[in-house]
């Protein structure tokens, strides 16, 4: 009887580890690749990743107020570092999973003033918005286009604005437009590197497995296909 009980415990434990669910907070720029990564993660490990998308700043605010995330994939390094400093994340778990790139869609000459609005993410909460402001400033166009700026709550909404009218230009994540033709990949020297860090919020089996998978060659291959640097 004891042997049978031990076997049942082992089987139940194995099932729990194999079939865990992990809640992952993900920066909006990573919406497309995270779908493929989550799918591959489930096929490889049996774990199900539940994805919540948003701007890095808003996701961090949710974590600060007790949101039940287990992993945080930010679009910067600042918020994961703050999460550790504020004891909201596991010390020593932070690493850079990707380096983002900025792109313009459609590709136009900003000097010609042939557009009605310029869509960028909110630079206060979205790292890609900060990079967009840096780019416009470095190119000498910020003061010229300032009155035409419209701000997306996150990079996903920024892209939606750019797609809503042929007269709206967007400065968005390269991963969002990687398969489109009329784009300009903005030179990386025009803005600070968009190093995107991941951090472990809770020490669960699913969360640890997800963090490990994110470092795998399989995940890196997906990232490369979407234009991210390592």
Automatic annotation (TrEMBL):
Keywords: Metal-binding, Molybdenum, Signal. GO terms for biological process: molybdate ion transport. It holds the Pfam family SBP_bac_11. It comes from the Bacteria. One of its GO terms (molecular function) is metal ion binding. Residues 1-19 form the signal peptide. SUPFAM superfamilies: Periplasmic binding protein-like II. Molybdate binds at residues 56, 155. InterPro entries: AvModA-like_subst-bd, ModA, ModA/WtpA. Belongs to the bacterial solute-binding protein ModA family. This is Molybdate-binding periplasmic protein. It comes from Candidatus Terasakiella magnetica. The gene is modA.
């Amino acid at each position: 009887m004891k042997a049978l009980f031990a076997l049942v415990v082992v089987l139940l434990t194995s099932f729990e580890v194999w079939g865990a669910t992990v809640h992952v907070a993900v920066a909006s720029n990573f919406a497309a690749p995270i779908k493929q990564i989550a799918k591959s993660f489930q096929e490889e490990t049996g774990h199900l990743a539940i994805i919540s998308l948003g701007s890095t700043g808003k996701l961090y605010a949710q974590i600060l107020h007790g949101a039940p995330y287990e992993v945080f994939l930010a679009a910067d390094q600042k918020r994961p570092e703050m999460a550790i400093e504020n004891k909201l994340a596991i010390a020593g778990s932070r690493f850079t999973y990707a380096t983002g790139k900025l792109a313009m869609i459609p590709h136009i000459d900003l000097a010609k003033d042939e557009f009605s609005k310029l869509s960028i993410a909110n630079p206060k909460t979205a790292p890609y918005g900060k990079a967009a402001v840096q780019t416009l400033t470095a190119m000498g166009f910020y003061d010229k286009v300032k009155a035409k700026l419209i701000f997306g709550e996150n990079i996903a909404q920024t892209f939606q604005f750019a797609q809503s009218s042929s007269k709206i230009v967007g400065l968005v994540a390269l991963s969002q437009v990687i398969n489109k033709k009329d784009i300009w990949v903005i030179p990386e020297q025009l803005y600070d590197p968009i190093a995107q860090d991941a951090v472990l919020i809770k020490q669960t089996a699913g969360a640890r497995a997800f963090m490990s998978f994110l470092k795998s060659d399989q995940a890196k291959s997906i990232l490369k296909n979407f234009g991210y640097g390592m």
